[in-house]
Structure formats: structure tokens, C-alpha cells
Amino acid sequence: MAEEYTKKIKFGILGCAEIARKVSRAITLSPNSQLYAVASRSIEKAKNFASANGFPSTAKIYGSYEELLDDPDVDAVYAPLPTSLHLKWAVKVAEKKKHLLLEKPVALDVKEFDVIVKACEDNGVQFMDGTMWMHNPRTLKMREFLDDSEKFGELRSVHSIFTFSAGDDFLKNDIRVKPDLDALGALGDVGWYCIRSILWVADYELPKTVTALRGPIFNNSRVILACGASLQWEDGKVATFQASFLTNLTMDVTALGTNGTLHLRDFVIPFQETSGTFTFASKSGFEELVTGWVPLPSEHIIPTDLPQEARMVQEFSSLVLSIKESGSQPEKKWPSISRKTQFVLDAVKRSIDQGFETIEIFS
């Protein structure tokens, strides 16, 4: 059972994007958070969103983002706005001393990212991006295998795929294909997850070089619909990823070590809310006469008391409560991880723009 809390963080939601439906439910499920307010540029849209998503009758409804930020009772803001609006509104959130849970990609580039995080640091507020799978207990369990030098050995390569087949309406009208709203397209959306998974496997060591794969697909507005890249580290380990709005739903990560292999088939959104699975093979070989594997890969099932998005909200709220109640400093781990993800994403975009040149990473 989830831990019960006597004090809860009051969340305001800035915007009524589709993903906000999922996170509003997560705020309700999290034991240390409260669904307190929602704002849209239209009061009617905000009212309809609150009604459709089970907001309590006491929830505040605002017809502008500014009104929500001026509410002194809002502790934290979840911002699922288009990426092009992140810089403006994230800085405003921080300047109003509200803690910030911001959808990914965090910014259009690392320069914008640094402005956002500096505003959070200057105002003493917690920052976290909305990469939900990071908070699944399965993620922690997989880390144990990757860190086991006997079972996994030395990391040599990582391969990540996140694709889904978007329909015609999405490809014409979704904000993720509009250059003025989310100019990074599939790279910023599904590619963010791929890059994060690679960095997570590599224990957040940045690669030495990044090279975009040839053959990215663009729409008529030059927004990326599908792309990929290869990453290489100074010690010789390598990684690849594929991100696309144009192929069947796939969420794979494979990490290969000198002694073991980790396979994950649903890393972004688990097949089930209540548990997550992964397979692990160690020191694999063939049976006599090459009739099968020995030993067989093992499947691991990790239960969870809350959906991973609710665990994300719970962890974020715990950090905020610690700041509010105990005077703790904001946790720097999360902005650091986010910046590395943004940094590599920028390098992929630059490689595409420069004709697939290899981009050197200087941290």
C-alpha cells in the first residue's frame, strides 16, 4: 500500500493537453498530492477539463495561466504546454516560487533549458521533467543487474526504439508536428525517451560523439517524423536509437554487456499498470549439438502499488514537502539528468541539420 501523508502538495495544471488527463489522475492517486487547480486560456475549456477528469468540486478553475500562478495556495505546477511555450511559462512559474514538473522535451535547445533551470535555482524551487518510466520500481531493479559485474559485466552497447503509428489526424493536426509549437517533432517526443534510456543504461556518462542516421523523414513543414542516431563513447561502447511516428508501437531497450544481456519490451509505458517485466540473460551459450540456450534467460516481474506516473508525482511531491517543511535544498539530480538528455538531443538535431556530420560532445 502507498504511504499515507498528512500534508499534501497542492498542484495547479497549466494547460489542458491530452497528457494532462493522465497526470491529473496521477496527482489524485499519489498519496502526498492534491489536485487543486487548472488553468486554460479559456475558462470554458478549463471547466470542461476539470469536469471530465474528476477534479474535486473545490478545485479552482482559471481562465488564464497568470491567474493560477498568482494563487498563493498553489505549491507546484505541472506544465504540459507545447515546447515552444516552455521557456516563457517555466520561468514565470519559478519566479512565482512554484515548484515545477515540466513535460518533456524540456526546451527547444540546451540554451533555453539552462535559462529554465537557472530560474528554478535562483528561486529555490524543485525542477523535474515528466519522464515517467524513471520512477517505476522496475527501473531500480534493472539497475541492480546492470551494476552486477559478475552477471552483466562491462557495458558494450545499448539499442533503444520508441515508435508508434500515428494516424492521419495526428500527422496533420497534433502539436508535435507543428513547427511553431513543437519543432523537434519525433526527436523531441519519442526520441527524448530513447536518449534518456541510453544515458540511464550508461549511468549518465555522456558519449564522445553523436551521429544522426541518414534517412530521417520530415513533413512538409520540415518537422521530423522519424529519425535515428548512433552514439559512441571514448571507451568504445556504442548505442543506437530509432524514433518514429510512422511505425508500429514499439518500446524496446536492449543493453549488452560482456557477461549479460538486458531486454525490455515496454520501457516507456508498461504493458500493465500494476507490474513491469524484463528479461535478463547471463553467460549464455548453446546446449550440446546447438539445440537450445543454456542457461535460459530469466524473466523478472516487478509489482508496483501505484502507476509509474503516480510514483513520479509522489517522488516530486516528497521533494517539495522536504523543501517546504524542512528547509531542504532542491534535489539537483533531476535537472542534471534532464540537461544531459537535452544536450544529446541537441547534438542529434545538429547532426541532422549539418548533413549527418559527427558531432563531438563537450560537456
From TrEMBL:
<dbReference type="GO" id="GO:0000166">
    <property type="term" value="F:nucleotide binding"/>
</dbReference>
<dbReference type="Pfam" id="PF22725">
    <property type="entry name" value="GFO_IDH_MocA_C3"/>
</dbReference>
<comment type="similarity">
    <text>Belongs to the Gfo/Idh/MocA family.</text>
</comment>
<protein>
    <recommendedName>
        <fullName>Gfo/Idh/MocA-like oxidoreductase N-terminal domain-containing protein</fullName>
    </recommendedName>
</protein>
<feature type="domain" description="Gfo/Idh/MocA-like oxidoreductase N-terminal">
    <location>
        <begin position="9"/>
        <end position="128"/>
    </location>
</feature>
<feature type="domain" description="GFO/IDH/MocA-like oxidoreductase">
    <location>
        <begin position="141"/>
        <end position="262"/>
    </location>
</feature>
<dbReference type="InterPro" id="IPR055170">
    <property type="entry name" value="GFO_IDH_MocA-like_dom"/>
</dbReference>
<dbReference type="InterPro" id="IPR036291">
    <property type="entry name" value="NAD(P)-bd_dom_sf"/>
</dbReference>
<dbReference type="Pfam" id="PF01408">
    <property type="entry name" value="GFO_IDH_MocA"/>
</dbReference>
<dbReference type="InterPro" id="IPR000683">
    <property type="entry name" value="Gfo/Idh/MocA-like_OxRdtase_N"/>
</dbReference>
